Amino acid sequence: ELIAEQTNSDGRTVFLCTHNLTEAQRLCDVVGVIDRGWLRAVGAPETLARQMWERIWVDLRLAAAPAESTVAGLKALPFVSAVQADSAQLAVELGSENDIADLIALLVAQQERVLAVVPRAHTLEDIYFRLQSHDEGEEAQ
């Protein structure tokens, strides 16, 4: 909390070296990921996530379980890669954040009542492990 106070109130820059990725994501505007002595990535966590994952998952809460025709209609959309339906919950993989409005429009047109829309956010831990798996894949080749 002291670090957050100092940087916000005084406009100071603080370099934080930590293995606690949750803490780093909470405190830092810009992060650098160092792996085995190499700087693998630098940027805001949100920017790094957008660079690493083209597609996004969106969780939706509906007033009731969606009709089968609605789920089939979602699966037929060109920007939808996957749909998971569980009671009044939907998880939909989209091409990009820009597709959320079209997804909602289709649901409303199908008479579905949308109560909540939550895009899934990747954590700094997700980013780190994605970099790790990518590097290990290159070493294997």
Point out poorly predicted stretches: none
Which strands sit side by side, in order, in the main sheet?
4-5-3-6
The radius of gyration is 19 Å
Which structural class matches the secondary elements? alpha+beta
Main sheet record: 4 strands, antiparallel
How would the global form be characterised?
elongated
First-last Cα distance: 44 Å
Helix coverage percent = 40-55%
Number of helices: 6
Integer count of domains: 2
Order of helices and strands: HHEEHEHEEHEH
List keywords for this structure.
about 140 residues, alpha+beta, Alpha-Beta Plaits, 2 domains, 4-stranded antiparallel beta sheet, two-stranded antiparallel sheet
Give an overview in words:
The protein has two domains: 2-50 and 122-140, no CATH class; 54-119, Alpha-Beta Plaits, CATH 3.30.70. Helix 3 crosses helix 6. A four-stranded antiparallel sheet has the order 4-5-3-6, with helices on one face. The chain has a two-stranded antiparallel ribbon with strand order 1-2. A hairpin with a 2-residue loop joins strand 1 and strand 2 (38-43). The protein is elongated and about 50 Å long. With 141 residues, it is of the alpha+beta class. The protein has six helices and six strands.
Short description:
The protein is of the alpha+beta class and 141 residues long.
Map the helices and strands:
Elements: H1 2-10, H2 21-27, E1 31-35, E2 38-43, H3 45-52, E3 56-62, H4 68-76, E4 80-86, E5 89-94, H5 100-109, E6 114-119, H6 124-140
Antiparallel strand pairs: 1-2, 3-5, 3-6, 4-5
Helix pairs in contact: 3-6
